[in-house]
Design goal:
This protein is an all-alpha fold and 184 residues long. The chain folds into 2 domains: 53 residues; 120 residues, no CATH class. The protein has a two-stranded antiparallel sheet with strand order 1-2. Strand 1 and strand 2 form a beta hairpin.
Length: 184
């Protein structure tokens, strides 16, 4: 719905609301109950639409934190996968950044996204047939949770530690080094 359509709709709702208010003042019989119900429904519709509009970000608007996190993840994918995917063009963020931000908005952490990039790059970077799938639209799409589980298992197998529970105090030097590569 465009802004103009939304404004037209809101104007119509306001006009209907005023008409029902006027009718309610003039009617004193049983029909007033029906009009009260209509009036209440219109008020609820108006409130819901106002709330929806307040929550909605304009298309293409990303927060600075989202953009920075997505660019860091894309940088790690480029590094681990020996790729050259661009985060930004003259028209704004690329689809690569938008795919990563969409996954972050669904609750994934930046660390989890980097872990998936690291693991999938290890698996696919040297395989000519799979290398073409080493891109954000594949990694952060519908199979992300599956890729994340596989990445966690691979990290645990390689280091012996859970990637989510690593700290400088409880990890051996080699694990810290691998973890820093993922976080950096």
């Amino acid at each position: 719905m465009t802004d103009k359509q939304l404004l037209d709709w809101m104007a119509r709702v306001s006009a209907w609301r005023k008409e029902t208010d006027d009718l309610l003042e003039r009617l004193s019989d049983g029909r007033a109950t029906v009009l009260h119900e209509i009036h209440d429904r219109l008020a609820a519709l108006e409130a819901a639409e106002t709330a929806r509009k307040a929550r909605k970000k304009p298309d293409g608007m990303l927060t600075a934190d989202e953009t920075e996190a997505a660019q860091r993840v894309l940088g790690k994918l480029n590094e681990h996968g020996r790729l050259r995917l661009r985060p930004v063009t003259v028209n704004g963020p690329t689809g690569h950044v938008l795919a990563i931000v969409a996954r972050l908005r669904k609750g994934a952490t930046e660390h989890e996204c980097r872990l998936v990039c690291w693991h999938r790059s290890q698996e696919w970077a040297d395989d000519e047939q799979m290398r073409r799938y080493l891109r954000p639209s594949t990694l952060f799409g519908g199979k992300f949770d599956e890729y994340l589980d596989q990445a966690r298992e691979a990290f645990e197998a390689e280091t012996g530690d859970d990637p989510d529970e690593l700290t400088a105090d409880n990890a051996p030097a080699a694990v810290i080094q691998l973890s820093e590569r993922l976080k950096a």
